[in-house]
Amino acid sequence: MTERHRPPILKPNEFYTFRSYFQMNFAPADILRELGVTLTKATINLPIAASELLTRLADLRQRLEEAIARVSLNSEAARREVIIAPILLEVAQITKAIVNIEYPIEVN
Fold this sequence. Notes:
By secondary structure, the chain is mainly alpha-helical.
């Protein structure tokens, strides 16, 4: 079965952020197809953490609970900075990974 010709979803001279894709009225599979990407869903078995890592996670949980009690999480920025960033940084510390954070700036 051949796919009908559709107009492109992404415009060549347009700037897109990660959030832009969630605001589009297209199926994620269609966006991925246009980007030349496929998504594979599979079960993975993660390694069991060493006991010293669990101590770090307990500390992280306590810090998150304290922060959540004192901060209004009504905006995406607040949730990103109070909840998501500390978790990503902790995972990076445990896995010895680098977190690449980019904030695009548009100048008129």
